[in-house]
Structures are given as C-alpha cells and as structure tokens.
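[Automated response] Your request has been received and processed.

Submitted sequence:
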Amino acid sequence: MSTLPSRPARRIGILPLPGFAMLAYAATTEMLRAANLQARAPLYEVINIGTEPGLAAQSSGAAQVVCQAQVGDDLELEYLFVVAGGDPVSFDDKRVLSWLSRVARQGTKMGGVSGGPVILAKAGLMDGRRMTVHWEHAEALAEMSPHLMLERSLYVIDRDRVTCAGGTAPMDLMHALIATHHGAAFARMVSDWFMHTEVRPSAGPQRAGLVERVGSRVPAILDAVEMMESHVADPVTLADLAGTAGVSPRQLNRLFRDKLGRSTMVYYRELRLRTAQALLRNTPLSLTQVALATGFANSAHSLAPMPRVSASRPRPIVDP
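Generated structure:
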C-alpha cells in the first residue's frame, strides 16, 4: 500500500454510449479505482454520464452501468472519456455532439476509447490533433474524415485530447496518465494489482518493445522515454521527466549521456522531430499544424533540420 500527498480528487467523466464494450469501459475505470485503493485516498472521482435521464447505459452485452449524471449537465471535469462500440460512424445524436463541444470549450480534456474517438471526430474535436481508434473503425473513419492525423497505435495523448484503441489498451493508457499524475513507481503498483506487468507503450503493438527501441534496460530511462512518448504535443520539462523516473534531473541527464550518448532533452527533441517527419510524409497537414502537433509551435523552435519530403502524400494513416 502507498499513501500519496492529499489533494482534491481528479474528476473523471465517463460517457458510455449505448452498445459500448464492457471490457473497454472496465479497463478504463478499474485502473482509477485501484489507484484510489493503493493510495488509500480518493485520487480519482469517476462520474458515469448517461444519454437519457434515469436510464442506465446498456453495454453490447447484458451488463449495464448506472449513471450519476446526464448529457447536458454542467460538470466540472478534468477529463471526459467517451466509450463507444458498435457503429460509431453512424452516430448522429446532435444533442450529445453539441454537449461534447461545449464541454471541450470549457477546458475539459477530452478522451475517446474504442469507437469513442470517432464520436470526438464527429463533434469536430480532433482537427489538428494526432489520434488513434480501434482498428475495426479505422478505415471508415479515414474515409469519413481523410484530413485526420490517424495513427495505428494503442493510445495517443495530444495536448488536451486522449484517444485509445479500446480492448485492454485503456489499461496502458491509464498507466501512463497515473504515472504522469503520481509517478512511475505508483503507476507500476497499480498495474501490478491487476497482474498487468507488461505495460505497453503508446505506439505499440506496431513497433518493437520499448527496450528494443530505446536500446537500454535502465528503468529510469525507460520511464522517462515512456513519458516523452505520451507528451509529444505538450512537451514536459526535465524536472517532470526526472520526477516520473524517480531520480534527480542531474542523475537522469547522466544516465542518458552514459547509456544513449546525448542529454535527456536532446533525446526528447529528436523523438518529437521524428514524429514531425512522419506527419509531414504521411498526412496532408501544413507545417504549422505539424508544429502544433509535435510541440514546436513556439517561434523559437524550428523544424528546418528535417529533410524535405515529397508533395505527393499517401492516405493519412500513420504507421509508426
């Protein structure tokens, strides 16, 4: 058990749309429940939101979720996750889509799980953001909105948008969020509670494992790189990375130089540049849009060192 410093619980809204997959819902919410248990404190308050007053949300199976709030309510949330299944491309409830847009304008971080990212896209909330979706919906979403920066990843965190492929992937996503909020050591404790000992990186499974990609088995380096990959569009500081890795900034820099031949922040910049290169090659985005999506929006930064790419660009599905 662990006791973390007390602070107000983060309010997490969950909107399970009719026909949602129970596994995706549970993988999203159970990690938050376990975090509260392990911390012996209410780190997260989960609020289930229904589409109709007084009605439980019906999953694709026999299970239902009792809701504490309804679409249209004014809720002060840090995150709102839409969990959807079935045929999200045909979802056309204007009331729900309008409410999602309003919640986003209020500054809530918006998330989508399984088919949920499709709903966010239909609400106009994914323009200029990197995103992923369950492979079953990827082709239909690409046809519906060919301008979207769609990646075949387990999850993508792009500034105030969080998208996840569903299935068991929300456990990996929640591990990353809990690590960002409360440190990598605590996040591992929560994942171990579910015997989820092989936590996958955001870009998996299309890429090799984190150890193979980084070229090091040092836990502090792996924790730092995992956080970097979760914060491409909204770069964090060296102090943030060191805090997540459980070491001092000076020690983290020494590890990166000894094992990888460059400082922590140089490695971080190279990672973001590689992501920008992939977006320029594989999406119709402008240089300004790519800069925003990879954290180079500040005029002090430049994407100039990247090689020029052909103006002929293929279909916007980015395979990492």
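Summary generated for your ticket: Residues 264-282 form the longest helix (19 residues). The two ends are 37 Å apart (CA to CA).
If you did not submit this request, please reply to this message.
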